[in-house]
Amino acid sequence: MDNIKNYVQENKDRFINELIELLKIPSVSADSAYSQDVINTADAVKASLEKAGCDFVEICETPGYPIVYAEKTIDKNLPTILVYGHYDVQPADPIELWTSPPFEPVIKKTELHPDGAIFARGACDDKGQMYMHVKALEYMVKNNTLPCNVKFMIEGEEEVGSPSLAWFVERNQEKLKNDVILISDTGMISNTQPSITTGLRGLSYVEVEVTGPNRDLHSGLYGGAVANPINILAKMIASLHDENNHITIPGFYDRVEELSREERDEMAKAPFSLDAYKKALDIEDVYGEATYTTNERNSIRPTLDVNGIWGGYTGEGAKTVIASKAFAKISMRLVPDQEWNEITELFTKHFESIAPKGVTVKVKPHHGGQAYVTPIDSIGYRAAASAYEESFGIKPIPVRSGGSIPIVALFEKELKSKTIMMGFGLDSDAIHSPNEHFGIFNYLKGIETIPLFYKYFTEMSK
Amino acid sequence: MDNIKNYVQENKDRFINELIELLKIPSVSADSAYSQDVINTADAVKASLEKAGCDFVEICETPGYPIVYAEKTIDKNLPTILVYGHYDVQPADPIELWTSPPFEPVIKKTELHPDGAIFARGACDDKGQMYMHVKALEYMVKNNTLPCNVKFMIEGEEEVGSPSLAWFVERNQEKLKNDVILISDTGMISNTQPSITTGLRGLSYVEVEVTGPNRDLHSGLYGGAVANPINILAKMIASLHDENNHITIPGFYDRVEELSREERDEMAKAPFSLDAYKKALDIEDVYGEATYTTNERNSIRPTLDVNGIWGGYTGEGAKTVIASKAFAKISMRLVPDQEWNEITELFTKHFESIAPKGVTVKVKPHHGGQAYVTPIDSIGYRAAASAYEESFGIKPIPVRSGGSIPIVALFEKELKSKTIMMGFGLDSDAIHSPNEHFGIFNYLKGIETIPLFYKYFTEMSK
After folding, report:
1. Chain B residues with CB inside 8 Å of A285's CB?
2. Is B201 within 8 Å of A220 when comparing Cβ atoms?
């Protein structure tokens, strides 16, 4: 299947420029200031799918941001692949740490990306990886090599927990009917060692508010005599982990699937250098749950992290104040078989219970999702493995990712089909961080690999 | 001395309007955005002192904001009173909690101020209380009742720790020579029970920075595997107090003056209602160091409070990020005989020592000052007590304040004279908080009482 290689080579400049145009639109779903940009991005995605050769494309309104739906049907008797992706992006802040503006894409070479990488918010997560599928379809349609039917469902709320997607999927089960769901919103081990994500962590994301006195107070006149909401919040957060970095919320681990020694030994075979890991993050040592390795801590174990904290005077200089309120955003990554709604309830109950007299506590659930594990003996996984092996020349390794795509569990429940996660990004691509980027090599390799998945999946489904 | 009462009644509208004009200038010394306003305020204070009848007024440049110096000498053989105050104010934020703009003064009635109170940042701390002295001088000059010499030293950096004042005082000992220093920058128990502040707490103010990974990370891919600077900062802050709310910094209490049972019993006689205290702050219970009462916790005991904390994503919605850095502003209120520089060093050493591997810690000292206690058998204290008793018709009670005026200890060291703190504000005036205000009654009563201090101090000095 050299045609695709040639096609990519002939069109790569156009592929890159089209993606760059898409990346220029700041589709930050978490911040309502960007709502028009999010909607404009949906329109741009719709246009790209029409141009790629879909025979039906529509913008589907939802209670939140619209979902772009498209399909190309060649034969009702052939399998149907449903491609899922998202056109929204994470907020860009802290903006001052970007070496170039997050929505003015530029190509720069890096140690891991000698052919250059596109630097922009959303370059990898997920505009770049989503657009690989649009370009792969373009190739298959133009060259009459599309072996099966395809549907696209591209949403605009993934970075805020996909609040409208469940609503949409429940109402469109017939329309979304498929034989396998294909997502590129994860990573792979390296450009020389592809991997397929077989597991995702679940998520429970909450915001907490601790209120002490009814107004900010002078820390001299009241200091030492009233509960300081910031000190109390710090104390409450600190108490959520014990000395072994186990999470102290009662019942938190009750449903956690414990992997066998064999499974853990299998995982341990994935190439990993702790020194390189520490060097890349510029840290003296790693930190986490006792008796687990770094790769276990960020994949098969649940976690609790504060994602943001604020309270009191944070401006220039000094203000001797005791704040009336302190806030934190806290997220928990979950593993099979934790129930995210149950975990949110356990957290809320526990957090309220540890608040001392003198403060009141509010816990506001943001969103969440279930963890997911996909079997490696399915047609979908085997087709993906063959596709990677052919385009990279080496067998991919199955890995569990620490990230969350909450809707994968939803798809299985509502659409009764398995999801295959063919990711082409690298952990070092700084998704959710300043200077997010996506390697040109990875982008083009993805476009090359996807048609192979279509081919093998159709053959193996016969 | 009814003339002063009459004079205040005849001129009270003008006194109020002049203060309102002064309060309109946002002289926030902590925020360089207001630097021109701070300087303009110095000019306004200079003009008011000239108008009040000083025979020499000047703006003294310093490494920071200028100091307004003035004097009125009637006889070298008579005592000299040095009046200290400050024309800078605290930042106004959180601005959204003000019921009227902080720099657009308005008069509103409150439960404790039935005659109305002026609402504005700096109304009480310290523009209003400083201006009482200007108006009292105006009265004494106009009516030829000034019994002694007076000097004014009004600075513009008190809210940021008076960094330039020591520099100024050391260089102007002869010019500042005096027999007593008079300050109105504290409060009193109530409008029916005046009190004189005989003690002030010291201060050590620091800013801490905790750095983990060299960039913000995706909390799914790295969560659980690296030290999260916010969780670590929370843990470090929490560890600074033990289960009895004692501060855990080694050596912190070594120099703390322990009061005798008798002294504590004497203190306990000051009228205080815990229920009213809790009701005013809308809290279910107080919180503080075991075995000490509320009034002891906020006056004779040292404290450690976080005044501000920030890190990670604090915007709208959710961002699943592990921040690279987390910050906090922390202040410690000190009591005799703690050395503030030593405490800053002890804190820094301890805070760095409790940082786990995987993060680095920076501690930046902001400013500080010594605690202070003034004897109640001095001429200055007795003159102040007589002045309050005459104008309020009731003996004032000596109290220790939890606040800090670091320069009081400096004055004693450099100028070899005692400081008398004649405060007229109330704890409920919300200084350093949104909706700061100063009672019209208190403002006028202060103008009435100050000339009595001049009279008694001169007589008792004979």
Report:
1. 357-358
2. yes
Length of chain A: 462
- Count of H-run helices and E-run strands, chain B: 13, 18
Which of A91, A287, A333 is nearest residue B358 as measured by Cβ atoms? Answer: A287
Residues 6+ apart with CB under 8 A from B70: B46, B49, B50, B54, B56, B57, B58, B151, B152
Please name the residue that has the structure tokens 């998520």: A203
Average pLDDT, whole number, for chain A?
A: 95
Q: Nearest C-alpha of chain B: how many angstroms from A369?
A: 13
* Domain encompassing residue B127: 2-200+371-460
Give the ipTM of the model, two decimals please.
Answer: 0.78
Q: What is the mean pLDDT of chain B?
A: 95
Residue B154 DSSP class:
E
Contact residues, chain B, for A31 at CB < 8 Å: 315-317
Q: Give residue A241's Cα distance to chain centre.
A: 25
In the chain, the amino acid numbered A17 is N
Predicted confidence (pLDDT) per residue in A238-256, tens digit: 999 999 999 999 999 999 9
Report the alpha-carbon distance of residue B441 to residue B434 in Å, rounded: 21
A276 touching chain B per CB within 8 A: no
The answer as to whether A125 is a domain residue is: yes
Domain count, chain A: 2
Query: In this predicted structure, which of A211-215, A306-310, B68-72, B428-432 has the lowest mean pLDDT?
Result: B428-432
Same domain, B232 and B187: no
B425 within domain boundaries? yes
- Looking at residue B240, which CATH number applies to its domain? 3.30.70.360
SS3 A137: helix
Q: What is the pTM of this model?
A: 0.79
**Residues of chain A contacting residue B367, judged by C-beta atoms under 8 Å apart:** 318
Question: Could you tell me if B379 and B334 lie in one domain?
Answer: no
Interface check B222 vs A, CB under 8 A = yes
Which of A369, A391, A417 lies at the terminal end of a domain, its last residue? A369
pLDDT at residue B367, as a whole number: 84
Q: Does A117 lie in the same domain as A219?
A: no
Are A144 and A155 part of one and the same domain?
yes
Residues B190-234 pLDDT 10s:
999 999 999 889 999 999 999 999 999 989 889 999 999 999 999
**CB of B403 less than 8 A from some CB of A:** yes
Could you say which residues from 143 to 172 on chain A have a Cβ atom under 8 Å away from some Cβ of chain B? 159-161
Residues B169 and B315 in one domain: no
**CB spacing of A227 vs B283 below 8 angstroms:** yes
